[in-house]
Amino acid sequence: MSFPWAKEYTPSHPFMQWMDQRLPLPRLVYNAVGGGYPVPRNLNYFWNFGFLAALCLGLQIVTGIVMAMHYAANTQVAFDTIEQTVRDVNWGWMMRYAHANGASAFFVVIYIHIFRGFFYGSYKAPREMVWLLGVVIFLLMMATAFMGYVLPWGQMSFWGAKVITGLFGAIPFVGEPLQQWLLGGFAPDNAALNRFFSLHYLLPFVIVGVVILHIWALHIPGSSNPTGVEVKSESDTVPFYPYYVAKDGWAIGVFAILFCAALFFFPNALGHPDNYIPANPMSTPAHIVPEWYFWPFYAILRAFTQDFFFIPAKLMGVLAMFGAILVWFFLPWLDRSPVRSGSFRPLYRKFFFFGLIPAMAVLFYCGGAPAEEPYVMLSQIAALYYFAHFLIVIPIVSAIEKPDPLPFSITESVLGHDEGAKLRPAHGATEAVHGDV
Amino acid sequence: MAEADGVRRRDFINIAAVSAAGVAGVGIVVPLVSQMSASADVLAASSTEIDISSIQPGQAIKAIFRKQPVFVRNLTPHEISEANKVDVSSLRDPQTLEERTKEGKENWLITMGVCTHLGCVPLGAGEGEAKGEFGGYFCPCHGSSYDTAARIRKGPAPKNLEVPEYAFTTDTVVKIG
């Protein structure tokens, strides 16, 4: 679906016409990311991060396939093959660190993308499915990143695998058999390493598939925008090509500068020295932490230190950690406000900037800190707010809040007036009612 | 199969075909799921023998059982009395030292070296390692402390360190598993 004024694909070259009648793939691309996709004209830079996320996925797949050419998933040699790739393979050092830092870049981009969605209400009708698929992508990313981190078979790899598969051991009755089934043994070993490698190679392509669904679902209503007011007329939009292709190109430039700075000057800044020690099942590193992008959720896991009625603390932590992401699935229905954008929601905005963001920052910091006071108590407070934000604050705020007046249209919000609006009185009347909500 | 029974020939074929496909589907899933379980060679290496003759009272060793550490500790009389002083009903996972050792061998505490929280190796078996505030084992990952009977006393771990199945084959050799 698209807007009636979307430009139609009209190939001029005879070969492209021949192709269009037999396999209209160029037409599909034209309508998806070309001149045939009208996009709101007022998108700000936060709307570049979806494209950047796709770029990161491509970067990870390309560098990952290269890494797989030099890697061997065997506990005897896995650590050495990574070192050999870095030291001996032509450009191996670059591929390895591009892949490792690419994962971090991917998560930076995706967190901004997700929080863009939180602030601007991108998850609301009619884009719930876009949001749900996005959460699925995030879960797949976390699984992929976790398994990828195990592959070098260093100390952090090994103990990360042990701790995370240990989470499943917390499930009553089936936990221990499930954990052994996941690992193919009593502890992480060759069987686990091999299946992690297999799945680490598979899942990115599953992500590609879900990304296609994500974009497909997005293109049904079209992109949202910072005002949250839906597109009303042609003057509200510009074609994706050339306008947003050029803008995304600019974003690539900025991204590439930052990424290259990390890759070439601080390739190990986000890594852990302990992962340059080969895995030793007999000795746990003094301070095991996951990669930085798991810290907020790791903090929630560790925040539960007391049994909760009949539920053991360990199981509570596991449930809360998964619940922290699963709650996002319900967000489109927890937030009842008809106004999308946080720019027009004074109360929601306050809780976003002074509640959710600080809570996430505290969880982030505590997740990387040792499991001792005051970090445990801080995590508990922040985790409590985190869940309250989604389950209590958002439903209440959306019920009692009085939103600021919305612009009549995207064009009006950009230009200060919308000449076309006068020609559409009937349309405008219904919108005025909507605007009062 | 007569039409009069209300069962049409096509319905029967349809149900039979879908049922057969369902059974075949389950038949395909079973090996796909089962192949991920521990393989025969992993299960075969699941018992181990340890010579304990050189472990002095107050010392402990780490051995390997099923690719995981197992702690063998020779408790001192003081450590045994410390463990027996505790009110069992006050424990998170109530067990006495007797229940966790073999009769007549109360000084030999044999447990898995796997924290029951998330599977880290607790400290305390090696020379000079921190034993935690209860004098047994201390897990550095999330701060679980175990006492001299390797019972959970503080921190997030839900259970005492697991006592594996074992038997003394002689006075100085233990067979685990």
From TrEMBL, chain A:
Organism the protein comes from: Novosphingobium lindaniclasticum LE124
Assembly with partners or alone: The main subunits of complex b-c1 are: cytochrome b, cytochrome c1 and the Rieske protein.
Main subcellular location of this protein, as a coarse class: membrane
Binding, heme b b566: H113, H214
GO MF term list: metal ion binding; oxidoreductase activity; quinol-cytochrome-c reductase activity
PROSITE patterns xref list: CYTB_CTER, CYTB_NTER
Domain Cytochrome b/b6 C-terminal region profile, chain residue ranges per copy: 230-408
GO biological process, one term: respiratory electron transport chain
Intracellular or extracellular location(s): Membrane
A Gene Ontology term for the protein's cellular component: respiratory chain complex III
SUPFAM superfamilies: a domain/subunit of cytochrome bc1 complex (Ubiquinol-cytochrome c reductase) (SSF81648), Transmembrane di-heme cytochromes (SSF81342)
Protein's name according to its UniProt entry: Cytochrome b
Function summary: Component of the ubiquinol-cytochrome c reductase complex (complex III or cytochrome b-c1 complex), which is a respiratory chain that generates an electrochemical potential coupled to ATP synthesis.
Binding site for heme b b562: H99, H200
Matching InterPro entries: Cyt_b/b6_C, Cyt_b/b6_C_sf, Cyt_b/b6_N, Cytb/b6-like_sf, Cytochrome_b, Cytochrome_b_C_euk/bac, Cytochrome_b_N_euk/bac, Di-haem_cyt_TM
Cofactor descriptive note: Binds 2 heme groups non-covalently.
Transmembrane regions: 49-73, 93-118, 130-151, 196-217, 249-266, 308-331, 351-371, 383-400
Domain Cytochrome b/b6 N-terminal region profile, first and last residues per copy: 15-227
CDD domains: cytochrome_b_C (cd00290), Cytochrome_b_N (cd00284)
Cofactor: heme; heme b
TrEMBL record, chain B:
CDD domains membership: Rieske_cytochrome_bc1
Signal peptide annotation: none
Record text on subunit structure and interactions: The main subunits of complex b-c1 are: cytochrome b, cytochrome c1 and the Rieske protein.
Function: Component of the ubiquinol-cytochrome c reductase complex (complex III or cytochrome b-c1 complex), which is a respiratory chain that generates an electrochemical potential coupled to ATP synthesis.
GO cellular component term, pick one: plasma membrane
EC top class, as a word: translocase
Similarity comment text for this entry: Belongs to the Rieske iron-sulfur protein family.
Entry keywords, A to Z: 2Fe-2S, Cell membrane, Disulfide bond, Electron transport, Iron, Iron-sulfur, Membrane, Metal-binding, Translocase, Transmembrane, Transmembrane helix, Transport
Membrane-spanning residues: 12-33
Domain of life: Bacteria
SUPFAM superfamilies per record: ISP domain
Chief subcellular location: membrane
The protein's Enzyme Commission number: 7.1.1.8
Name the UniProt record assigns to this protein: Ubiquinol-cytochrome c reductase iron-sulfur subunit
Reactions it catalyzes: a quinol + 2 Fe(III)-[cytochrome c](out) = a quinone + 2 Fe(II)-[cytochrome c](out) + 2 H(+)(out)
Membrane topology recorded in Swiss-Prot or TrEMBL: Single-pass membrane protein
A Pfam match: UCR_Fe-S_N
Annotated source species: Novosphingobium lindaniclasticum LE124
UniProt GO molecular function: 2 iron, 2 sulfur cluster binding; metal ion binding; quinol-cytochrome-c reductase activity
Localization per record: Cell membrane
Remarks, miscellaneous: The Rieske protein is a high potential 2Fe-2S protein.
InterPro entries found in the cross-reference section: Rieske_2Fe-2S, Rieske_2Fe-2S_sf, Rieske_Fe-S_prot, Rieske_Fe-S_prot_C, TAT_signal, Ubiq_cytC_Rdtase_Fe-S_su_TAT, Ubiquinol_cyt_c_Rdtase_Fe-S-su
Cofactor dependency: [2Fe-2S] cluster
Cofactor note: Binds 1 [2Fe-2S] cluster per subunit.
Rieske domain mapped to chain residues: 77-175
